[in-house]
Amino acid sequence: MEHPRLRDSNRLTTKELYPLNVFPENVITDIGGYFVYLLYVGRTDLTGSDWGDAFASAINGVHLDSPVGIADVVFNKNCWSMKTVKYTNPFECKNVRLISGRCSPDYSYGITDPHRDVQRTGEAVLGIWNERVNIANDHYSQTRTVVLIRSNDLLSYSLFEEETQRYRTTDYVWAVNDNGNLIGKDSRGKICFTWQPHGSQFTIHTEVPKSAVRFKIKAPPKLERTAILSSLRFDKSWVEILS
Fold it and tell me: CA 180 to CA 88: how far, in whole Å?
């Protein structure tokens, strides 16, 4: 349903660019075109920064490209946290693990031994995450996470987004796995989070919705050296022999 017309609509701060996980067709096309361009210039993989650039270009937003905080791409009062993962067949992927920053219970809460009280450490990790979401929500009316699953050959993709949410810290039970990492499970025993003491990396386990957009791109022709030099109008004067 469209937003109603109101006399004080000029004060509206919550208007979304498009409904959650309902990407306009032109956005998908622009993203695909950006990936074709990267392949054309010889790229063999996409980085998180590439993904941020592609999405920002498609929505006419700004890619902050900052290593801290949740807001990676912004458009007016909307912000997105950009995530990309690689999977052999993105169309069949059911679950993804989203690396979601470093959470240090030592720095934030003074917990020097994370294994002494695993439950307390896990709740501290979620507390750090929640505070980052709070900061984003203080600045933006819409805070989302947009996930791109890419194939090894960069020709197939699944795309979805969800609201970037806070988590009730007491809803999860924390334990230590065989690798010495902390895992957070919900009441059904499903693993929802992983936290690595070494490096303090926090990972959110996310299900891929059936509504994810699946698309393919066509591999562009390879650049030929002679064609490139010709387009640049290269001649021998470009090479200066010094000795």
Answer: 28
What digits encode the pLDDT tens for the residues 151-200? 999 999 999 999 999 999 999 999 999 999 999 999 999 999 999 999 99
**Using an 8 Å Cβ cutoff, are 92 and 119 in contact?**
no
Cα 103 to Cα 29: distance, rounded to the nearest angstrom: 36
The answer to whether the CB of 65 falls within 8 A of the CB of 52 is yes
Decide: 53 and 59 in contact? Cβ < 8 Å. no
How far is 120 from 189, CA to CA, in rounded Å? 18
User: What is the model's pTM?
Assistant: 0.88
Whole-number Å distance between alpha carbons of 147 and 212? 9
The CA distance from 81 to 158, in Å, is 16
Measured between alpha carbons, how far is 99 from 184 in angstroms, rounded to an integer?
15
CA-closest candidate to residue 204, choices 177, 176, 165 = 165
Helix (H, G, I), strand (E, B) or coil at 69: coil
